[in-house]
Design brief:
- This protein is mainly beta and 167 residues long.
- The protein contains one helix and 13 strands.
- The protein has two domains: 30 residues, no CATH class; 134 residues, Trefoil (Acidic Fibroblast Growth Factor, subunit A).
Amino acid sequence: MLKNAMSRIVAVGVAAPALALALSTSASAASEETVSWQNDATGKCLNWGNDAFGNYRLDPPGDCDRSTHGWSQWHAVKVDGQHWTFRPDDYVNGHQSNMCLTSYNTQVYLEGCQDGNWWQQWEEKWTGSGWKLQHRGDGNVAGYYLDSNGSSTYTGPANNGNNQVWH
């Protein structure tokens, strides 16, 4: 994932007999990893929750819990060279969620993951200070960007505000 790849580039020097320099990026080559998204303007995280029956839902933005059992943790699955799906990362509890972060029109919610569903696929776009997450749309209409006002999460057309910037 581009977000983590840029932050994890590590130079490793090897000598014998000549000095070789190898770059290792654990994330860019990975097809799956754990991420969290904190909004630049509000400081709140994109969170998920579930009920006693194991039903997953998108919770309102809130405190960032990146612990092993954290509801701010998302399982990112690479779809192609530039798009990802985001699923609640509840693997530590033995649950493999098949729910994906989805956006249709301006609504953002979780629904069952479906291969090829472009409304569930997200592209990370670096702004120079954070990331904008754009859903893929339907092929004819460019997707909206993940946005938050601190009490809800939604998508909207690109703007220059920090409410669309995530870390």
